[in-house]
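hey
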């Protein structure tokens, strides 16, 4: 499955690059505010984390672009049981592919799919950390939507994106759990036009 998904992504990127007006490479980073939604009604609190990575920005026309990214994202949630706080710390290598509509004033709207590959999974209670990677599925699919602004002259920008998990991340058990979260960030595109 991973192989076919990687091949499809590579094909889209190569086809997009061949027809593109211009391509930019950039870096990005920012704040994550994530939690986990459970279908049994169990409530988790938002956990703060970070995201950092690379982006490609492929212009097809003056208004439309494709922005594939490779981003490390710290996600998870926290909850309290009988007065004891527990943090679920999930680390993913995410590959979002955002389709963007760009306005003439630097603002842009974006939406697209994301696949995440689990890099780490830990549960921390009372400063005791337990590896729970075997309990979390290794691949997570999501949809993202957001908005951003880039200063055309400098290449610096800001963005906000909401990611809605579609996959059940529980490897074991009957409860369906999905990641969801808000990402706030800054980015810089080298040689932006």
């Amino acid at each position: 499955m991973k192989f076919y998904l990687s091949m499809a992504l590579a094909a889209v990127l190569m086809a997009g690059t061949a027809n593109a007006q211009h391509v930019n490479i950039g870096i990005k980073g920012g704040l994550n505010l994530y939690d986990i939604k459970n279908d049994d009604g169990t409530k988790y609190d938002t956990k703060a984390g970070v995201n950092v990575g690379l982006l490609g920005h492929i212009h097809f026309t003056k208004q439309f672009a494709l922005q594939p990214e490779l981003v490390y994202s710290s996600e998870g949630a926290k909850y309290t049981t009988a007065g004891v706080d527990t943090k679920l710390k999930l680390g993913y290598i995410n590959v979002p592919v955002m389709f963007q509509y760009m306005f003439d004033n630097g603002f842009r709207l974006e939406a697209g799919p994301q696949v995440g590959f689990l890099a780490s999974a830990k549960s921390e209670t009372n400063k005791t950390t337990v590896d729970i990677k075997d309990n979390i599925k290794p691949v997570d699919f999501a949809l993202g939507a957001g908005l951003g602004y880039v200063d055309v002259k400098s290449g610096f920008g800001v963005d906000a994106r909401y990611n809605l998990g579609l996959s059940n991340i529980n490897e074991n058990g009957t409860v369906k759990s999905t990641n969801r979260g808000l990402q706030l960030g800054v980015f810089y595109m080298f040689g932006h036009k």
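Strands lie at 22-38, 47-59, 64-81, 84-102, 107-125, 128-131, 139-150, 156-165, 177-190. The two ends are 37 Å apart (CA to CA).
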